[in-house]
């Protein structure tokens, strides 16, 4: 039976979102909402992007529309409040108290729209001793214990780019929070504030590990455990050409298949003997260094040995499985990850390229019935 699709742009079609321009997790969260079909209006500031990235290549601004508002101009806050009055969600990523000083904090917005869900994205959270302090992803994940888990023993912790804090512990928790609060608002009629702090979300991500430590299953130090590189059959190995292969052969049948294909079945009984793990690691490493990454990929392809090549960002879109699923897509000359997850009835897609600052002011003024947006632009923010 074929499931009919619903006309629209995704499951959040009809939801209106105001995004106060920032960097990192806020724009990513707003992109995810836009990918899911929400009408996201990004309020950009005059003067260009904060990090100097060409807006035409910033895929975190795809599927959005942009208006220019100077929040420090006399009419700037009023225009944001006009948008908030017509929105379901608002996302901001300022330090605590900044939105209030600008006149667009939760109290001012809820005075205009009591049903509004006001999402706040910060590193340290809205309260606590560090709340007013500056920081970045690396600082937030450091104090949660998660950064200290990653890397080899006797070496400094390895940096997982800004994926773990900004995006996993930050943006994704903000999206979960605002969607849960949106559901509540539609049931009760009451909006609320969602305090999404990277320190909270990143700590929450490690819930299973905390339980494993309490149970004595996980040692509270890096590089010695089952899933952190301590286990020789769950890790990465260099190949003859300088590439790498990833091994995740945890279960007995996968482990046996892995050793057989690798050519060292005599080490099968070392699986549960931690005293022999280093011996096993050396044997695995020596074998992987005997062939190239592509040769090993071909050997393990189509097996249940749980082995995969470690690809670069440019290589990933060409992997046969990802290509078959359309995990990446090309839009406007930019190769980028396609929207995720997937929906059987309300499919999503990349509808538009990155929103250019201010390019959609006239359309948003019309669609959201905020004509003053264009008037402000024509008068430079002065009335």
Protein architecture, described:
With 383 residues, the chain is of the alpha/beta class. Helix content is 35%, strand content 14%. The protein has a six-stranded parallel β-sheet, sandwiched between helices. Strands 7-8-9 form a three-stranded antiparallel β-sheet, with helices on one face. A two-stranded antiparallel sheet has the order 10-11. A hairpin with a 5-residue loop joins strand 7 and strand 8. Helix 5 crosses helix 6, helix 5 crosses helix 7 and helix 6 crosses helix 7. The radius of gyration is 25 Å and the shape is elongated. 37% of the residues are buried.
Largest sheet: 6 strands, parallel
Low-confidence sequence ranges: none
Mean pLDDT: 94
Q: Output the structural class.
A: alpha/beta
- How many helices? The count is 14
Distance between the termini: 59 Å
Helical content band: 25-40%
Order of helices and strands: EHEEHEHHEHHEHHEEHHHEHEEHH
Task: Summarize it.
The protein is α/β, with parallel strands linked by helices and about 375 residues long. The protein has helices at about 25-35, 75-85, 100, 105-110, 135-145, 165-190, 200-205, 205-215, 250-260, 275-290, 295-300, 320-325, 360-365, 370-380; strands at about 15-20, 40-45, 65-70, 90, 115-120, 190-195, 235-240, 245-250, 305-310, 330, 335. The protein is elongated.
What's the helix and strand layout?
Elements: E1 16-20, H1 25-35, E2 39-44, E3 64-68, H2 76-84, E4 89-92, H3 98-102, H4 106-112, E5 117-122, H5 137-143, H6 163-188, E6 192-197, H7 198-205, H8 207-214, E7 234-238, E8 244-248, H9 252-262, H10 277-288, H11 293-300, E9 307-309, H12 320-325, E10 328-331, E11 334-337, H13 361-367, H14 372-379
Parallel strand pairs: 1-2, 1-4, 2-3, 4-5, 5-6
Antiparallel strand pairs: 7-8, 8-9, 10-11
Helix pairs in contact: 1-6, 5-6, 5-7, 6-7, 13-14
């Amino acid at each position: 039976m074929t499931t009919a699709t619903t006309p629209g742009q995704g499951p959040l079609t009809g939801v209106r979102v105001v995004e106060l321009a920032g960097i990192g997790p806020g724009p990513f969260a707003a992109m995810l909402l836009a990918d899911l079909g929400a009408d996201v209006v990004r309020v950009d500031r005059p003067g260009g992007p904060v990090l100097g990235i060409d807006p035409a290549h910033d895929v975190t601004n795809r599927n959005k529309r942009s208006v220019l508002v100077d929040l420090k101009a006399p009419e700037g806050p009023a225009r944001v409040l006009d948008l908030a009055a017509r929105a379901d969600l608002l996302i901001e990523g300022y330090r605590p108290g900044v939105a209030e000083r600008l006149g667009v904090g939760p109290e001012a917005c809820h005075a205009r729209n009591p049903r509004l869900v006001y999402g706040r994205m910060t590193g340290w959270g809205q309260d606590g001793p560090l709340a007013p302090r500056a920081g970045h992803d690396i600082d937030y994940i450091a104090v949660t214990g998660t950064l200290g888990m990653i890397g080899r023993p006797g070496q400094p912790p390895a940096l997982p780019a800004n994926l773990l804090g900004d995006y996993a512990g930050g943006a994704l928790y903000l999206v979960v929070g605002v969607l849960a609060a949106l559901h509540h608002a539609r049931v009760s009629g009451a909006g609320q504030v969602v305090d999404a702090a990277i320190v909270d979300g990143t700590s929450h991500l490690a819930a299973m590990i905390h339980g494993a430590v309490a149970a004595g299953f996980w040692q509270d130090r890096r590089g010695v455990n089952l899933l952190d590189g301590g286990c020789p059959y769950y890790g990465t190995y260099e190949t003859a050409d300088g590439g790498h292969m990833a091994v995740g052969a945890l279960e007995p049948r996968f482990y046996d298949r892995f050793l057989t294909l690798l050519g060292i079945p005599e080490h099968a009984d070392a699986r549960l003997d931690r005293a022999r793990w280093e011996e096993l690691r050396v044997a695995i490493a020596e074998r992987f260094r005997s062939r190239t990454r592509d040769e090993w990929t071909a050997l393990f392809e189509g097996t249940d040995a749980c082995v995969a090549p470690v690809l670069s960002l440019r290589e990933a879109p060409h992997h046969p499985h990802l290509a078959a699923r359309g995990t990446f897509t090309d839009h406007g000359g930019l190769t980028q990850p396609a929207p995720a997850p997937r929906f059987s009835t309300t499919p999503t897609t990349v509808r538009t390229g990155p929103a250019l600052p201010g390019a959609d002011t006239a359309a948003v003024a019309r669609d959201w019935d905020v004509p003053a947006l264009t008037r402000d632009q024509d008068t430079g923010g002065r009335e």
